[in-house]
């Protein structure tokens, strides 16, 4: 037991997050176009050189997913990741009858934001959504990556298997989480920034930075600013 304690005391401190360029990583927006606008304005004022990174789940639950997608697609230099809600939307576009559960998990609000009233899990609703999506949006959604790495910082939506290099991860773990994520340290020195799991306030520790503060429910959208100079959190809303 004494040797185990001594070994922990001697374990080198993990490196600080050090992206290759300044980053502004934004948590789950979930249809809150108002909060996204406020966050982007705050970033422009306080970290104008930071590259915007969206950690997925831009859509569903909140009232204005249509406006969120329009705003995000127009962002300069932005990196946009796929979340499990974008995954569900794409699956609905592929096969609405088999993937109608999306409507119960926020897809209903997304469809209404595109002007589709009383949506059903059928081809008529799917076709209406395709007509309502701005040109190129469906292809853009399908092409969203599940991870992005800059320096020793990896951004994913939900989590990652701590034993597996980020590029080799099962996409399901990146989109929906992994039971070992945050419980066991990574051995590659990467910090993993993620959303998906709601926390009362953004936090960092043990190589993990959590930034989903439940914007659709709490009214608070959070982000982390990372650079060689250090890290800090931003939150907009009450």
TrEMBL record:
Chain spans, region Disordered: 1-21
The Calcineurin-like phosphoesterase domain, residue ranges: 22-184
GO molecular function, one term: bis(5'-nucleosyl)-tetraphosphatase (symmetrical) activity
Record-level GO cellular component terms: cytoplasm
Alphabetical GO biological process terms: RNA decapping
Position of the signal peptide: none
UniProt cross-references to InterPro entries, sorted A to Z: Ap4A_hydrolase (IPR050126), Calcineurin-like_PHP (IPR004843), Metallo-depent_PP-like (IPR029052)
Transmembrane intervals: none
Listed PANTHER family: METALLOPHOSPHOESTERASE, ZINC-DEPENDENT ENDOPOLYPHOSPHATASE
Name of the featured protein: Serine/threonine protein phosphatase
UniProt lineage: Bacteria, Pseudomonadati, Pseudomonadota, Alphaproteobacteria, Rhodobacterales
């Amino acid at each position: 037991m004494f040797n185990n304690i001594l070994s922990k005391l001697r374990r080198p401190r993990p490196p600080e997050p050090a992206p290759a360029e300044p980053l502004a990583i934004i948590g789950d927006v979930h249809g809150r176009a108002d909060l996204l606008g406020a966050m982007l304005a705050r970033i422009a004022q306080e970290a104008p050189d930071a590259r915007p990174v969206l950690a997925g789940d831009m859509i569903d639950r909140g009232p204005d997913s249509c406006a969120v997608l329009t705003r995000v697609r127009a962002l300069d230099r932005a990196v946009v990741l796929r979340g499990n809600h974008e995954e569900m939307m794409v699956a609905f576009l592929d096969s609405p009858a088999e993937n109608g559960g999306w409507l119960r998990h926020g897809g209903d609000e997304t469809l209404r934001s595109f002007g589709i009233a009383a949506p059903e899990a059928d081809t008529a609703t799917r076709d209406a959504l395709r007509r309502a999506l701005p040109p190129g949006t469906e292809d853009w959604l399908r092409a969203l990556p599940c991870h992005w790495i800059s320096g020793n910082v990896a951004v994913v939506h939900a989590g990652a298997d701590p034993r597996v290099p980020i590029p080799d991860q099962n996409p399901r773990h990146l989109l929906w989480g992994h039971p070992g994520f945050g419980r066991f340290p990574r051995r590659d020195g990467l910090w993993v920034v993620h959303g998906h799991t709601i926390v009362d306030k953004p936090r960092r520790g043990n190589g993990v930075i959590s930034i989903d503060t439940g914007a659709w429910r709490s009214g608070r959208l959070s982000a982390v600013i990372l650079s060689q100079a250090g890290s800090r959190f931003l939150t907009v809303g009450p």
